[in-house]
Fold each of these.
Amino acid sequence: MIRWKTPAQPLESEDLEELVGENKEFDRWLKREKKISHYERARYDREKRRKTLETTIAQIKNPTLTRIADELGLRLQYAKDDELEVLQDIRDFFEQYLGVPITLPIKSTGQKAETVTEEFATTVPTEAARKAKERETQWIGRVAPTLSSPSTPGDFTFWVEDNENIHVEVGSIVTAHNRDRGVRVTGLVTDIQAVSDVREVLDSFYAHAFGRPEVEMPTRIPVVVSARAEVVRRSDGRMEPIRGTWPVAFASAKEIREAYGAQISPEHEVLAGFTYDDRRDPVPIGLDARYVVGYEAAHVNISGASGVATKTSYALFLLYGLLAHSEQHDGGVAALAFNVKEADLMFLDDLPTTWEELDPVKDHPRWRSSVRLWRQAKEDYGLDPICWAKERRFRFFAPMHHRPEGGVLSQRSDAEAFSYGLQSLIDAGVGALYALFDPDDLDEKAVALTASMADVAKQRSLTFEGLIEEVRNAMQLGQTRGDWFQLDGIQHHKATANKILNRLQHALDNQLKGVVLKTENTDRPIPLRELRSDQLWVVDITQLSDKGQRLVFQTVVRTVFRLLEERKAVEITGRLETGQRRYPKHVVIFVDELNKFVPSGREFSVLKGEIVEIAARGRSVGLSLLGAQQLASKVDEEVLANTSTFAVGRSHPVEICKSPYGWLAEGLKQKATLLDKGWMLLWHTLHNRPVLVHFPIPLHHLKREIKGELRQ
């Protein structure tokens, strides 16, 4: 490797190939460290840097790393704008990767600058030079540090050119350039306004012929558009304000990739959506898998209004991104999704047969952006649900129907049926039994009695019917003790027992009929031990009561947590057996209406307590909750506090002003009330600022919409 070469040692042809060859050492470094990858012009941007380095080397007789560094230092002192950015990337490669310092000589004359610029123009082929001219930075304004709007290390204000073809919006990503020093400050626009020197509405009224809207003013009044941008990244790493009136442009793909991906290495990057660069080309935004599925951090929360925020669609896209990352990097990730509303997720395998089926609509005004994003996601990140469906990586489960002829409680008739008996629920943890009751029923006495009932049932392998009979017999035997009786060696009050038994009987006969077996232990629980990496299982709980949904959710979460805990424990000791080795290292569990399962407030503390604790400890064993809900303010605060990634779709103005959305600037909160379908405001623990991301229509929706359109 050239990295271990002595700087003064002459370079061989193999060494030079590592410097200027495609997919060689320098090229790979540009992808990994400078994030010049996964966008439309990435290959051209890398080629431009390799060609610049190649031209520099060609001017040196018997090149060594030291001589190349000296020549680069000479070129850097006269470079500006795009040329300077290219040379700075090469300098960073030499200093940060090769460990060869580059010093800039003192400027002597202005003549050399013209020579260097001319040389730079020859470093790329004719076609590439044409593209480079097209890519010349289009300035849209300048930074304006003023008394009323000073620049700070965290934000800056800029005015926008008086041109109605320039569209700066809240959520736009811009970059301020110091063209002499090559420093770039990338920021997210969080506020924008337009003002003129007309002081009052009354003055404007008089100026238009005393309120005649069809009459123009005699003199055109300049309207100044100014915007405030929060700093996402400063290229030199300094924490200081912009000191001049630097020109501003929309951020390039490379600048966006560096701003939101500088701390995320390629082997950990998970696709989370796309934003758009200065050419309106999609630029991928990534998350760090270690902070989504563990072990550094975990959990994702998505909020937005029902029907317009497309929360489930975005959650599914994130799950696909995690599965693709797992497949490409042997991440050992599997996913479980609860279908809580309608039947959307139960048919996610109803996909086009091949990707070519999307070609006829790739230019359709409604679907072309989704087709383009899906193709980019597949080619650059390996998202391929069509292939996964063919490989049968999706499995579907639904509660067993209570009718005599059997079947499932689901719109998908071929889903695998599941049911739970008393012993299976106890195996998942005594907390699963609490879900059989309403929150108001579970005072301290009821919780203690439920724990005793669980102990007795486990010791004697009882069914629910046998357990109810056992408790009633114990109450009969305790008649001589007044209002108290003994169960499992512990004293309980008969009034508590009567209340619990009545509630339990009602739940088994009505609310949980089918999903919970009352008289037998020949149940068929979801076979969670069979879950494997790169698989996505969907559990349909749509037709269950709230109590039934809580029961299934909590039972599954507890069981998965226990299995992951067991796997992690034996992996640490080095005694991982075959069955445990095949079990995933990480499991992501998606559920909509998260506030139903871990609501805020103390009245639900017994029901949600163990799930809240699992959320706090989940990252350490590889369990991640991907939760969605309309109102994040209704979700337990501790669950939100342990969440590493937040996404917000279109939201209600009242909800967006509450404390869980404090990470959004005021302008972004207003933006959140107006977002279109397919857009999310995203914040990740390794992102310095939120980012507005676009994601494609789910493939199974896309197929359905295209079919419907063709029928018409």
Note: The chain has 25 helices and 20 strands.
Amino acid sequence: MPPLQAHITLFADKPIGKVNRWVFGNNMLGYQKGGWPHAEPVYHDRGAGIWDPERRRPVPEMMAIAKNTGLSVARYPGGCGVHLFDWKKTVGPLESRPEQLFGLPEFLRCCEAMGAVPLITLADYHGTAQDAADLVEYLNASSDVRHPWAQLRARDGRRRPWNVLWFEYGNETEHGDHVSRRMSPREYAENYLRYRRAMKAVDNRIKLGAVVATGFPNLNEWALPVLQRTGKEVDFVIHHSYIPHYSREDGIPPAEELFALALACLDQIQAYYDELRRLLRETTGRDNVPIAVTEFNGHFVQEKPVPYRHTLGNALLNAEMLRVFLNPRNRILMANFWQFCNEYWGMVKGYVHLGERLVKRPQYYPFEFYHHHFGEELVDVQVDSPRFEVEGGYGVAPAKGKGQRGGAAGAPIKPAEVWRIQPVAGVKQRTENGVLAVEFGGGEDVNYYHARVVLPVKPNTLYRLIGWVKTENLTSSRGACFQIGDARGWLATRSAAITPEVIGTSDWTRVEVEYRTLPDTREVEVLARRLEGGGAVSGKAWYRDVQIQEMVPHTFPAVPYLSAIASRRGRREVYAMLVNKHLSLPVQVEVEVRGFSPRGANLWVLTGERVDSTNEQNPNAVSVTHRALGSVGRNFTFELPPHSLAALQIE
């Protein structure tokens, strides 16, 4: 088949904002032994490969790679490992912390070596506001007798202050500490204000971020109550961008279909930031509260047929996310890819101390492209391209035609049967007048899923589950909720969604969640749930009035196969970053340049044989080629291969 035809117009004389290089940040891992079950010596002693404890220095090879990505903001100590993290165990003489050789001073030395701004995440389920104030003193106060923590910093080899200004209060706090506790939005907001005031009393320059969303949940559930309480004081808010949500191990749907779906999510992300900006204006009275996206990646949690998180397709998805983060209207303060090296997600793999070759995975290359082949000021660009449509799924909304608003369709569907109950040790269950009553004995961390109803549904259709839950003295951080999923079960389909949880003592509370059925689904099961992971549970829960409602989903417009973002460096160079999302056809790109007189052009292209190609076995399977386009005028053409990222430089 002939290539697709697309046209881009670069308006070199129409600047629209500065290129915010803080969106090219990353995450560094310093997991603490005893504070996170996945902590191993390679994390708490070596920072997942960036620190050499034998020579007591950053690993030069890793620092060079970090610099080559333009790594601007480095986040520490890493994700959910921060919940119970005790920073005071990461400082002081090495002999006093033999199982934390990669501590806070070592992380900051790596930041210096990389030229990165440090971002430190505070523990949300360990410590006090005074501990946070002590941290600021350690980092930023003068090392005199008035400041014992700063004196410890001097003994750690740093007499002058580190001047760390950026902090987060917690990481994905809304989902709990993975052990036994989970804060309410109000409790989190009160803690945030307490921590912020204590920290600013030590150094008024510091900025503290507040967690508002992980993934793309309803902003009314957590973000709204947090912002209603903190809005007048909040310095910035924190979002983690993970989409799509895919965890199947059977290769269904095929990679081409899955990545076409993933690459259709960008309007959906933009709409979410538009809604978050609206909420920020309403709750804070300010239009300048920035958003920090301190984790982002494609959420592919699987290994077979290949680990999709390490594929060319995921590199293209991350390049597209960067395009959204760079949009000035979103006021993105910073963005941090999850994460830099090794562990499960690293863009670089290999340990120098083991003599391993350092392999750049595909998701490394968008950052290298932006560092070397992009300007300092954004300029306007228009794209005219053929489009494609997707039905939606795995957290991605449909994209068709011109798009349409969603809503309810037809009458609600109620169960035709009573709850089917299976016995479970330590739990009493009964039904009365359609209400399921459950009492937990208190001895175990029960994973409760033993009452279900089944309802008929249509395949590949969006439904909203609505139900009511009441609790009495329900202990632990995991509460009562409903789960809707394919009736064949989670283990068979990996397809389900869970409503918000109700904890403690609460009157009847309406909960709801949306769920899209699989292409071959004929029935769904609704389970009365209490998930394990919150500690031993006692108390009572009641469940009633379950129903599902077919929904017409909010549909976004069909997606252009070619996307572009453009910039300039002074009057000397114009750049464009392009993604061809067609997974089997090349795109013939016609470029029109306005407000600039081109002399020549160069093109760098990242691609591979397939969209699911990885560098796991062959480190050059996904690689970069350079092509000199030679002398060009105001109009010229070139061809982009399928599933590719390209950096265009015009001189």
Note: The first helix runs from residue 41 to 44.
Amino acid sequence: PGLTVEEYQPGERGAQFELTLDIVERPEGRIDARFTYAAELFEAETIKRLSEHYLKVLEQLAECPQRCVGDITLLSVNEWEQLKNWGVNERRYANTEPVHRLIEHQVAVHPDSIALIFADTELSYAELNCRANRLAHRLIALGVKPETRVGIAVERSIEMIVGLLATLKAGGAYVPLDPDYPQDRLNYMAMDSGIELLLTQSHIRQKIPLLAECEILELDRLDLAKEPEHNPKINLHGEHLAYIIYTSGSTGKPKGVAVRHHALGHFIMSMLESPGMEAGNTLISVTAFSFDIAGLEIYLPLSTGARLVLASRTITQDGPKLVRLLKTYLPNVFQSTPAGWRVLLAAGWKGLQEGNHLSLKCLCGGEALSIDLVDQLRALNVELWNMYGPTETTIWSIIGKINQRVTTLGAPIAATRLFILDTQLNPVCCGMPGELYLGGAGLARGYHNKSGLTAQRFIADPFNEKGERLYRTGDLARWRSDGQIEYLGRLDHQIKIRGFRIELGEIEAQLLLQPQIREAVAVTKERLGSIRLVAYISCREGSTINTAELRDALAKSLPDYMIPSAIVILENLPLNANGKVERKLLPDPELIDMNLYEEPQGEVEEALAAIWKEVLGLHRVGRNDHFFELGGHSLSILQVQQKLQAMRRITLPLRAYFEHPLLREIAAMVQAQSAPIAEERNTLDEMAEIIDLLEN
């Protein structure tokens, strides 16, 4: 008696769990909900947004209890408008022209300015245009017109640039055919694209499969002196084809992405504005022209009156030589993949800045940008840009200037639509993961000769009433509260290694074509900040397989960057309850030693083993160990080369590592090269002694 009871509201207290929702029903029928959260894990704005979404769920279910969960809309009108403001760039350039016309305008304004530098050769804008025009007129005479596919199989050279420009000027669409690709792959690309004419060079013609009814021109032996020098007058529409670039395909064969003139021209106009480039600037190009991002390196400088310095293949594969080229030409813009930047840094590149002046724009794309690489590049006082975009949306679609310690993607470029959607094609809330979809001016036609795959990946835009399309990237991403996009990884088995897009299914399909193999799966493993390809196989009953021979068989159809660095043979692949391969249970390849270890013998083998251990992050390397089975790849070869050059002034050809991958074989080649150097040193010592005697 005499006691009264009243409600007591406790003050702020620490959260017992990461996130708790307490619901209390009041006597009058009202329901109160309270979120308690760990402040170190969630921002107040995130919880506020979550509570609003919870309220919307309750409202819609109370209004219609039969409503399906997938039909519930979480976003408010204001949130949807905010996502559109972040993801839709309405900026469009009027009267967008094909890139070769943009270059012709620069010829008229800067005829005597240097346009192209390769090795010891320099061409002015007028000279480059004259060469391209003469070849274009020859192509027109041979029947090249809009929609004609022209194969280009040349090494990095003046002829490569001239051939690309001439094909565009003639109205044709070029199809890059990298001479280093396996013949089977080149043959498929040539047949699938339907090239009607091939531009090549005499010394590599034999590498390219010959097609019936296909005209072949050897650019280094072609006499074009009598061809006209004026710009061809070809009527081109923005929807006409500019090029077809082949990327890895999950069916076991590469797929050709068909890109339109308007998409390419509009992209270059956007890049001229941001990140930006001006007349008188210099760009050094290092990317293989079969990789679509090479289009930026070629057309961006030539569309604004700048200099294009084309690095030779030898230089692009040698870090120290590339560093010297950068010091020689002091570029204003340089583009590379994260792996390429790491090679440059490992070679001792210290940036090109003078004082605190930002003299170099570093464009980094092709694979995910890691925070440690951001730290290394920003420490060099450069202007760092993160670039994102699949081949299907024309080179880059999202770019961002990195001003702080982050790895976000940035914002869409001009005339680009960007959405992050769930599996029902509904926009996801800020902070929630979803698939990244891209649309706008940069969208490709689709996949050449693959209408079914085109329909699957290029879908109708559910937010557009004009019948436009969106491309499903297969990338997982989410919006941050500041409007930046955070990349979270892949939704499928497509990966990127050193900038090259790879479908693991294509590797698996080629493995299963081998008669001895019963099961095969390809995965990626990460070590020392780099990603390596690993194949796991099981053999048919009564069959055995040699991993070196298997690698040789794969090399007939797959480029070297798609050859697994390790091949692990298992009795059976581990399966889950659904009968699918359980990738998490696949053993680490380092735990399986297929070779009997034998100590390195002699000074050269010991020195080489020490280099391999350092580059590959291993504790032990034997004389019979296989470079690629230890996890080596083309970029790690460059690191080995740099250390060999520093230690013994020796540089082996890159192909040597593929043809003789055992440590003892490489050591023998190093020993063979060391002898002449030692003899040269002895000769120099004797000459020095003679000079000393004469002087004294």
Note: The domain at 99-479 is CATH 3.40.50.12780 (Rossmann fold).
Amino acid sequence: MNADKSRFEATVAASRADRARVRKLVDDKRWREAEPDRARMALYTAKRQRRTLPSGGAEAIVGTDDLQASWFLPAGSAVRRAVGYVESNNAGIWSVGSGFLISPDLFLTNQHVIADALAAAATQVTFDREAGEDGTMRPTTTFKLDPAKFAIFSRQEEFDFALIALGSKTSGPADVADLGYCALSDSDDKHVLGMNVNIIQHPNGLPKMIAVRNNVLQHRTHRTLLYETDTEHGSSGSPVFNDAWELIALHHFGEPFLERTDEQGRPIPINVNEGVRISAVFRDLSNRLQLLPDEQRALLNAALKLANKNNSHSGGKRLSPPRPSTDSQESLVLRQDAAPMTDKLPTNEMKIAIPIEVTIRVPGASTAHIGAPSPSLPKELTRGAEKIAIDRDYSNRDGYNPNFVKGVVFPLPEPTGKLAKQVAPLRADEEDAAKGELRYQHFSVKLNKSKKMALFTATNIDGKRYLDIDRTTGLVKDGAEGETWYSDPRVSDAFYLGQPFYTAWSNLFDRGHLTRRMDPNWGTAEQAQRANADTYHLTNCSPQHFRFNQGTKFWQGAEKYVLENGAIAEDTENKISVFQGPIFDDKIDLWSDDVQIPSSFFKVIAWKGKSGIKSVGLVVDQLAMLSEQRGSGIKPGPAASVNVSQWRVAITDIESRTGLDFGSDIRDADTIENKDQPVVGEARKAVPVMSSSDLLPRLP
């Protein structure tokens, strides 16, 4: 829901002079003079010294609290697990934010994130949506909310909170006890003006991040705190902490204001943020306590009495169970011209990987990347140096040609229904950017922005002009496979899986070609070499089990078999068109962190036969293989039995399972409709592919 920021903006304007005073004192390393309430300052200082100094020690350091005790990072690492990513989709109104557990039973966020009980019932909360110790994504755990059990809302004009009972777990390895909580307190020793604050958040729907250091608390009202720190859309509902990781505020608003100037007097935008004081939330909840039914009163009373407690937990790289997919990219649009958040930082920032990404701003410091020693990771199976070079002048790519087969038109598959909204657009300066077609040499790719892999690839194959390409050098005739894969600058890399994913999950998956490496390798030597290299774009890659190619020889050879046995009309010069891609099924698909792994892949081959248009649909299933891990990065020996289900199926079945429309010509020409073919299953025609001859019926 839209937040009313008028009172916030009024507070920012009214406090400008006070905040400038605090900022000046901090800049002058006199931050301890910023707090006007000296009794509060004394309590805060005494508590801090008990935590950080030896008995009888003197604190000689001046300036803000940039020097922290050794427990600061692990304590923050522990408390961050209670922070969750909130997704609410109520009656078509989609909103995202952050929130956190205040007890094992109750979850707190903003009321402008979850407006009421109806919205809460349509909300899911995902925990551990973050990078792990090795920089790769951790397994996530998702819970529903249960407003029928407990729900209290405070309007955004008052305290802007929604406190709701945590519901049932829908997926993931973590239990509530693993996540911990951020206890509420109304004590007066948790904050003073001039100190730094820390905020754990999901900015712009990104994985969990922490803003720490140089985030100064500048103003206090009876209801709110104002502070400068980095927040974005999606940070609403985040917890704000002091350096002891005690909860001091519920973040709810943030805006850039031009309040500072540079050396030339030009205004500098700064982010002024407002959080609702936790003491104010605590007192409001306490006042409501006696008005609640017995069961709800017991839940709230238990939460208000909790002492801070942190739990730690580590997760392994394992697939999580099936769960409903959320096509969040449909509503949360990434800026096409923005660089990835981790690529470039201002020169006064550095990033530290603890188990989550932390942004630290240090005045006058230069950029640095610091990482803890990486644990032993599954190694990638690579062979030799990569010599294939990508031609970065994409203007010479012809892409898929619908008129490639003489006398017929095989158009690109058309995404239908909700799937049409998931086509990833190209960058704004690309031609027909909204259509999302990435044209390569003799093939094209369209990406599914929510699944982060291809919707489909479409390839033209010229059997008469085919050239054999060396897989190492990329030149005509010689060698073995190269291993370097490339990004495509024409589309945001947020829309497809990158190398870090395949590195992290190399115990299960290879980088699997969709358009096969050899299929577009025809034409002149230059064209064939360019086509071969183009198949090594990550946009043409999908997570396929490492034994996939061992068990799918009929699937892998289907194009060649059609070229040799498809009774292709002579006037077409042995040309065919091939479409392939992943098949997603929420009921059975497993998950790699936040990536839904397709259990199946489809292939549709179309050509002009001697008696007219012909087509065949194939499906291969990798689900049964996903329980086997490669282990320790050692190349596996031959399996005793690699059992991959391969089926020839009706193209209408592929359409219903993918949401793609292949057009009436391809659909009507399906060879599965041959009356001599068996029917397998209850309502679907399917032929188990046990030999190459099963790929096609006997064609006239």
Note: Residues 394-695 form a domain with the Extracellular Endonuclease; Chain A fold (CATH 3.40.570.10).
